[in-house]
Write a structure and sequence with these properties.
alpha+beta, four-stranded mixed β-sheet, three-stranded antiparallel β-sheet, 3 helices, 7 strands
Length: 133
């Protein structure tokens, strides 16, 4: 199975209003998928982790009921992000650079980030992929 996977360009950690820890990932390439999922109103998804063929990276693949899918590639420089996902965590995937979101918050003197198009995942966690050949 061939899957085109994209790596996060920016990431951040924070807390949601309800106190839950959140990992925020900016991946610009998923703009179309984010829009499609949001417009369809689907909330049911499945996810799984797999290692790349060379086992030098991990990929998180998320698939919705309408077969829309995304694949986020975590290279070695992203392994710190995977460490954050060893415990279940909420994840926000945005297609807007986090630096722009932070700039807007500072300009408006907000103590929060205002998102536009995002996908959210609850209690996402990293599971070591089964390495069967």
């Amino acid at each position: 199975m061939y899957t085109q996977a994209y790596s996060p360009e920016q990431s951040a950690f924070g807390k949601l209003e309800n106190g839950r820890d959140v990992l925020i990932l900016y991946v610009k390439e998923f703009e179309g998928q984010v829009r499609t999922v949001n417009q369809s109103g689907l909330s049911g998804y499945t996810y799984h982790w797999f290692a790349t063929e060379l086992k030098d990276a991990y990929v998180l693949q998320v698939t919705w009921e309408n077969e829309v899918h995304i694949a986020i590639r975590f290279n070695t420089q992203h392994f710190g992000l995977i460490d954050q996902l060893l415990q279940p965590k909420d994840v926000i995937l945005t297609t807007t650079p986090l630096s722009l979101l932070m700039e807007k918050a500072q300009t408006n003197q907000y103590n929060f980030i205002e998102f536009n198009d995002v996908l959210t995942f609850s209690n996402l966690s990293f599971e070591v992929p089964n390495c069967e050949n």
